[in-house]
Structures are given as C-alpha cells and as structure tokens.
Queue: 2 jobs
Job 1
Amino acid sequence: MDNDICIELDNINYRYNDHSILEHISFTVPRGEYLGIIGPNGGGKTTLIRIMLGLLQPSTGVVRILGQELEDFKDRHLLGYVPQRAAHEEFYFPASVEEIVRTGRAARKGIMKRYGPEDRTALEQAMEVADVARYRKRLIGELSGGERQRVFIARALAAEPAILILDEPVVGVDIASKDKFYSFLKHLNKDLGITILFVSHDVAVIAHEVSEVLCLNRRLICHGSPQDYIKEEFLEQVYGRKVTSIFHDH
Amino acid sequence: MLEIFQFSFMVRAFAAGTIIGIIAPLIGTFLVVRRFSRLADTLAHVSLAGVAIGLLTKTNPVISAVAVSVLTAIAVERLRESNRMFGESALAIFLWAGMAVAVVIISLAKGFNVGLFSFLFGSITTVTSGDLYLVGVLGILVILMVAVFYKELFFVSSDEELAQVSGINARAFNLILMILAAITIALSMRIVGILLIGALMVIPVITAMQFSKSFKQALLCSVLISLVSVVSGLFLSYFYDLASGGTIVLVSLAIFLVAMAFRSKR
C-alpha cells in the first residue's frame, strides 16, 4: 500500500432491505487532497461517508484508512468527522465551547487517563485555528449555526487528525459565514496539510473550492478534476436532469 | 434542631440521604442531557417488582430491587441499540411490565403492607443499618465510576456517534450509564420513594441548567441543589411528620421556582 494514500475503497457495495444503495465503489484519496463529493439526494453520499467512518458495515468490499483495513485501524483520532446535523440541529446540550472542543482529545488520550498539559496545548491551538477561542466560556447552544460549525471543526482539529470528513457542513449557515468557512477549509488543507473530504449539494461551490471531485449516484459516475467533470453532460448523468452550474467568486 | 441526631434512625436517614443526594443528580445530569429522563421513572417502577420479590422471598428488598433494576437497564439498552423500537415505547413496555409483575407478586403475598408502602413514598424511619451499608458501598461505587469515566461519559452524552467514530466504545459506556442509573434508583427508594425518585434525578438538574455556563458547573450545582433539598426535606419531614420523598421533592421544586424567577428577572 502506498503511504501517500489516505483512504482506499475497494469494490464497496451496500444493500439495505433488498435495495442497492451503493454499487462497486472503488477509489483512492491521496494525502493532502481536497475532495468534494456530490450527487443527488438518495445517491448514497452520506451512506458512503458512514461506511468510511465505520458507522455502517458494507455488504461487500474493503475500506482502508492510512494503509490499514478499517477494522484494524486503531488510531481513530486521525479521522476527524463533522456530521451533517452539527450546524442546523437544535443544540441544547448544556456544555461550554471549551468542553465540547476538549472531547476531541478524549479518544486520543485513552480510557481512564486524565487530560494533561499536551491536551491543553492542542485544545488551545485547535480553538485558535478555528477562531473560536473567544467563545470558549459560552454555551454551545448560544452560538449561531456558523459559529457552532467552527466549534465542531475545532473539536475535530483538537485530535490532530490527518483526515477531515465533513458531511454537508454549511447546511443552515448564512452566506457570509459560508464564505469564511470555505476559506477556512482551504487553509486547513493548504497550510496544515489535512486531507479533506467534503460532501455538498452545492455543485458550483464544489467546482470552485476543491482539487478533486467525485460524483456519486449509487455508482461512481466520475472522479477527477472539477474542471474536467463539472460539465453539463456529467451533471445530467449524476442528477438525471439538465443542471447548469453557475460559478461565482467567494 | 440538632437533637434529632440523638436518634440512630435519623443519623442513618441523613447519611443515606446525603449519598443519594449526591448520586441522584450526578447520574440524572447524564440522563437529562441525553433525553432519557423517562428512564428514571421506568426503572423506579420496575424496582417495585424487585421490592415485591424481596418481600415475598424474605430477602433484603433493596438488593432484589438493585438486581431487577440493573437487569432491566441492560434489557432497555439492548432494545434501544437494536433500533427495533422507539426508546419511549420500549420504556413504556418495561414500566407496565414492572408494575404488573409487582402487583401480581403483592397479591400473592396477600396484599399491601407497611414495608411496601414505605418503598413507594419514602420513609426516613425505615432505613436499616444493612440499607445504609448497601447505599454507602454502591453509592461510592457510582461516584467513583463517574469520576473515572467522566470524559468518556461526557463525550458519549454530547455526541454518541462521534464518540464511536473516534474509537470510544459508546455501547459499553451507554451500558455503564444505564447500570449506574439502575443502582442509583434502587438505592434511593428508602428515602425518596419509588414514585418520586425520578423527580430528584431531574428537577435539581433542570434547575442547575437555568444558570450554569458549563456541563461541569451544571453537574456540581445540581448536586448542591439536591443536597440542600434532601437535608432540608429530611428536617421538615421529621419535624412536621411528613413523607420524606414528597417533602424533598417539594423543596427541590421550590428551589426550581426561585431559579426560574431569578432567570426571568435577568
């Protein structure tokens, strides 16, 4: 296995109640890539992410993370995840921002071990990078969707991940916050070298932001440069209807 | 006022009450934030079946209640995990089953007796040395488990799925929480009573959440509110000859109303 491959999916199939959700999905994600995953609703994007994270078992096929099969992959903290519900869900959990970000260190620390100085340093750095240090004492439920999303990314960063997987991260976030958020993701990818997988409905944003795009509609329709694939004929194949992407500056 | 401590049953009641006053909101906080508040009621009603078994077989009812409550907690968690039933429906079924079993066993034992009545409503005069020993040992075990596994319990409570992705065994910690809740509820019967233990696990937590700025603060404040409720409730219960469980819960409700009034003024 090439050390520069972060994620490898080998012939993944997933069936649920006799319905085929994913068929013959194989691709690799090299270290440092910024991959956008697009596809219609029900196309299997979230299922694919959940299989990569080990939250769903594929019917057949193998997932490898950093060269190891997922079942044998012990350094789970290297796999950062920001779920779909994070920003738009009613979040009433009575915890401060600092407490939420600190959970990013929990798995890395290990069971029955208390947080130490190295955890505090990582916590501070994650909050600084995600620009949430000023909210540290506020309750998570008091923040806006965009602010909360950055807190959840700070939590993922606190674990010092090699890979960051985000599922529809800007749903429920206002336009100004979205722009800041995309710049922030680019910074994480370019400056910190974190491999990013990013699921989105927004084809134009994917085309503009990511280095590679993967189009999914039960099967893998295409995987490559957005310039090559975010074209009308491919989008029609993915979405089953004519789609025009409008490119805009952020 | 302190002359009440010349009675050994009051010393036992206060000692047991203090431990229950700590562990009820300690576990209650994790249940409330996970929206499992109804679990306390279900396990309390199931504990009644355990008490009935204890009274019928002439064993310590607190021990049989702990056993039945823990087994039910494991079954509830397994059912919740399997996603075969809504959590609320599963809890309702266990609650009714527990009550039905209790009623049948009580009828076999030829009706209600004073012992059973004290478990339903709480009675400070009925805490035996054996009960106090059990509350002490298991209560300290509950506190130690929360202290040792605090970071894992907090993570699983704040985001179960993410904790699992990070490599935390969320299933194991859910089970630990359920078992600790079952032990807490069964231990609390003597002081607060089966019908009101849920209130002591929830009301101080909701009160603390009105003004707390972090989870840890909510946890510590809820323990403080609960201790004030238990201690003053026991005093009032003794001096005015009131049922201890109801008095403790009414004091905690009064504190809740004061907290709400302060919050609305801010």
Note: The mean pLDDT of chain A is 85.
Job 2
Amino acid sequence: MQHKFIIFLIAITTLMHQKSFAQIQKCRVYFNHKSTKSFDAKSYFDAKAIERRIRQELPLYDWYDLPVDAEYLQAVEANSQRLMMHSRWLNAAVILANPEQIEKIRAFSFVKEVEISAPQTVSLAGTLDSTDADVNEVLASQISRMGSASMEAKQFNGKGIRVAIFDVGFSGAENHDAFAHLRSKGRIIKTWDFVKNEENVYKGGWHGTAVWSCIGGKINNQWSGLAWDAEFLLARTEMGNKEPFSEEENWVAAAEWADKNGADIINSSLGYTDTRYFPEQMNGKKSFISRGANMAAKKGMLIVNAAGNEGDSQWKIIGAPADADSVLSVGGVEPCCDYKISFSSYGPTADKRLKPNVAAQGRALCAVANGTNTVDGTSFASPLMAGFAACMWQANRSLKNMEMFKALEESGHLYPYNDYAHGYGIPHADRFKNKVAMPTHFAIETDPSGLEFSVKINEDAFDPAAEEGKQLLYYAIVRPSGLIESYYVLHVAERVPLRINVNEYSKGNILRVHYKGQTSETEFK
Amino acid sequence: MKIISFKNLLFLLLFPSSMVAQQVMLSEDVAIDSTIEKRGPNRKHYTHTFMSFGLAADAGSAGAKVVQPRFDYFNFGIRYKRRLAEHFAVGFDLSYGLEDYRLKQEAGKKLPDSLLNSRERMIFNNFTTGLYMRFNFGKRGNQLGKYLDLGGYGNIVFSHTHFLKNKLADGSTVRARITGLNYYQLLNYGLSARLGFKKFVLFGQYRVSNMFYGDKNLPELPRILAGVQFVLS
C-alpha cells in the first residue's frame, strides 16, 4: 500500500510539474567584460541610428554596443542545452541548462553572474474593453486635446521620425485601411517577431494594430494618431495570454534592434506586475526590462510606456518598465475631462519618483483586426503620446532624448503642478517649448487666526454653469522632501472650493494648488 | 506633546476637519499606498479557505473493497501559510471532512460483516488538522505560484454511520441507518502531499493509522485518497 502511495505521488508530481522538476533551467548569464575593443559602427547601425547619435552628441558606439564576446557565447553554448538569445547592452546570454552545466558556467572566469529565471505567467498591461462611447467624440478628442489642429497647420506629422512599436502582434494591420497611407509611402521600414524569430508580425493579436493606429492611423477619414507620416519598426515581443519571462528578454533584444535600425522613439504598451514582482520592487532597477529600457534611453531613444491598467486593482501602481527613470510613463485620462480614468495605474515608484510622467486620453477609437473599435487602456494613451512626441521632435530636431522627455513634461496642462495620477498632465503643442505667462485665477488665503487656508477663485475664472468634471481644481499636500503625501481633484462649483484646517498637517508641508493653468503653493507653519 | 490652545480648540470645534464644499473627483493618500503588505499569497502571512473533492485511489483491503471510481471525499477548511524564504514556507490547516465509501457486495466481504446487501455505505465525519512544508518553484510576485506541499494530518472522527439498503422478495425496500458503532477509531493520522498551480491543487493523502480497532479484526478501507482542491479566498 505504501508503495502505491509513493508511486501515486511521483506520478502526479511528474505530470503536473514536469518543468519544475526537470533539471533544465532557464538562466541569464552575465559576462564581466568584452574582449572586442572596436567594431565598425557604420556598417552595423542603420544610417538613421548614426544620425541620431551625431545629433544627440553621443559617441557612434560605446562599450555597450560592442558585441558579446563570441568565445564566451561559444563556451556557454557548448556547456548548455541551448543558447536562446544574447544582449550586447547587458553583456548577457540567455540559456537553457541543467544544474551541472550552470555550475560549470558559473565557474568560468569571464562569467560575472548567473541568474536563474524560471518561466512564469504574467498579465498583459493594456486590457481592452469595448465601450459604447460616442466614437466620433472619442476620435476627435484623442488627438485634438494635444493640439492636433495647431500641429496640422504647421505640418508636424512625424515626418522623418522613426518609431518602433513593441507589442503582442499586429493582426490585420497588413491590409487594414487605417495604414494604407503608410504602406503606400513605404513607411514600414522593418518588422521582426522576436517570439518566433521571423519577419511576419501580422499575427498574435490586434493589440499592436490598435496601438499603431493611435500613433499614425487614419480612421473614418480622420487621423487617429498624430504621427501619420512617421516611419515605423514593428516588433512582436509579447506572446499573448501565456507570457513567460522571455518576453522581457524579447523586449531588450527588440530595443537593441530598434537602436540598430535607427528608431527615435520606442512605444511599448505593456507592463509586468504582480505575477512577477512586488510593488516595492518597482524601483526601475529590479526588472530586466526596466534596466533594458534605461539602457535604450542612454542610446538617445525616447522610451514611451503605458503606465498600466491596475488603478482599480490591488496592485494599483505602475508596472515594469514604466517604473524606469528614463521611461516616459503615460497615464490615462477620461475622454470628457482632464482627470484620471479609473483604471489608469498610479505612481509613485517604489523609490518615490514621480510616475506617471504625463497623461493622454485613456479611451481611443482604434483600428482592430477587422475594422475599428473604441477601446480603453493606457495602452492607447501611450501611443497617442508617442505620436505627439514624434511631431514635437520633428519640430525640434536638435533636442536630445531626455531634453524631449523634460519638454514633454513641461508642456503638460498641469505643469509645474504634478501628482501621482496625472504626472504633469496632458501635453499640448502650443505649450511645447513655449513658456506662457501663468494666469492669476485664484488666491490661497489664510484666515486671521492662521488656522485655515482657503482657496478663493476669481469671479472671472469661475463658471457656475460648468458641467461636472469640466472645471477642476487639483491640490496636493507635499512634504519638504518633495514627496506628495496626498492629492485630490475637485470639481469646482463654488468660488471657495477648498478650506484646509492647518492643524491637520505637519509644519513644513506645502499646500500646492492648480486651477486653470495657475499653480500656487503655501507652507504649513 | 502638542498642546492645543483655546483658539485652536475653538477652531476645531467650529471646523472639525478640512472642508471641501465641492465634488471630489479623485482622492489619494500616498502613505497608505506605500505600506508594504505583510499578508498575501506570497507575503509573510497568508490565510485562505479551501474546498476539496477526492476519491479513493486504492480499492481497499480484501474484504473491504469499495466501488470505484466514485467521489468518496469532501473537505472544507482554512489554511495558514508562513513564508520563511522565497521558496520555502510552513503552515497548518483546519478542516471538516466527509468520507463516504460504498462497499462492494461480493463474496469474501468482511466489513463490517459478511452479509451482502443491495447497497452498503460507510460514512465518516471528521475534523482534521494538518501541518505542512511548502516548496515553491520559480520567481513570482504576490502569487501562490507553483508549489509542492508535504506534511501530515490527524483527524477526529466525530460521527460514523453505516447505511444499508435491501430489496426484499415482495419488491419493497428496507433502509437501515446504524450509528453508535464501536469498531472504529476516533483518531486517525497520515501523510499528505499537494501540488498546486495557483488556486488549483492536486492532492493525495495516505492514512497510516488503522481505521478500526485491532481486536475487531476488520479489513481496512482505502488508505489513499486523491483529488482536486480549490483555493477559495
């Protein structure tokens, strides 16, 4: 009887956990140096990549661009089951190996670290929900609120800017009318499926199709994205519902590919959260993908990433790589109004940096595999922002990528006010690199006892008939360190919308208020 | 200690807190969000309820063969897990269990006697407590992930019922329900193993103790139970 029990245990164990019990493990092997001292950057990089480096005063190549030492790769390959991929930037190889092989590889003098990475299932950022919103209203507002009219008048349409899109697939995009103008002009420069190592990316799901249309598509004879004359690199890095760790590796490989092929902007509407990480690990340093994203930014590319759709869930905050400090994380706002759409993920990062950085509309009319649909998600706010950035870069070609990052923040409708739901708010073309005088719409008054702050709106800046959500006051309690302690958005229906009891807050904290373009603050004493 | 002046007190009475006369569209307290949770599927402490359905994985001893396959086991309980390391945890559970065996009516039957009936069932209700060690596989966030539990259990049988059903020559049916029996042991113990994939679990348990008193010379019912378990919340 006991034997039967043991056999039973072994059977179910083997059946259910073949991978877990198998000796083969997936590992990332990091090397401690590169023996190659130089390489021919001009033959390796696309001309656009060279141009980007020159324009941004970056060296044509640096240590990170040098190839991984071929001998190391050979040695690792010879002592593993399979060499899956390697990364120049991270000087690493991803392999499958058994414990004996791992130990052997670990002992190599040129190996810095071996990191075991077991396959895991993770959730996709950018869930898609059909809505019954007025499609024309959504389509009009998704780009007009960032100044599409102004950009069109100045012919800012992303021309000359190369945008890479990393996604789960671009099903239906190859024949979709929304991209006919791009196909006819040869604007699709390259495609690559990093999941299957093949050229065809027009499969795997329509999420990428929808995202692409928010950058440069045309729907119902209207532009659905701002950068409709940009060039595109389309990469499939996601596997869909079953998403192993290799997706992060695919992302980094795609970023190197985008760099090599001259991308100026990477849009990635994806994120990794609770199945892989804890909220306290969202510091931009923990995850492989965030480290890769920061490296991509060092190459002069602007990395635009969806903040995530976890605002309503227990996870709540941004995921990776939206946590990386050089990644422009994009939150979502309501189509009607300038406040956060419910599902958009919050900041800050685990190390208390501001995230999201900016915001765009979290609902969009998009191209899908067999037509169009109105969909919700920061997945679509991110490409709307990427399209905007492409146009602004076209207009300000001399800007370096992190200058562009800063300029995008500064053009937010809330700037210099910010919070962990909207960042600096929704950028607008008219505010981009264009300092406008701050209006005077309200005053923060202190009562004679000194125990109450009140915000009083000027009569000419107050509309008693304003629809709910159309007349907003933002305020935050900010610690001396700069960390926002709490923040709020109010619909203003009276001229004194806010009274604050000073005794409730610590001395030194700051009350910061934003209303219709004016930001003012006062200190708790 | 901060002393509240009369002026402040008066203010607090008149204005008990910060007042917002308008509609709040968004309100967030970052300090609350920044608290690192101690409870959760892959945190320090985790408690959840579970429900199991199982069947006898062996036929039982000669003389106590049971009808197979048939759902013979149900259990519902609460489980606690204490994480000690990324891949290792310990814990215990408390549950109610129901074992319901249908005895094969065949020659050589000895449990609880050699009489053959149209149908015969033995039902045991128990309270069970289990201790286990958990080995987790793979990196994960605040998720149960994949795991193997190895442990032991003990239970107290608080009721045992023997059901009989017979068809008589005249076509009528006689049902009998016998309780207050004295041949079964109150305490049982055994080993348990579970393989979990998130909230879905395959379990097996082996009863080491004998179910019946030795001096009764009764054959044993199946010792191995196996089935599925669902983590509920």
Note: Chain B touches chain A through 47 residues (CB under 8 Å).
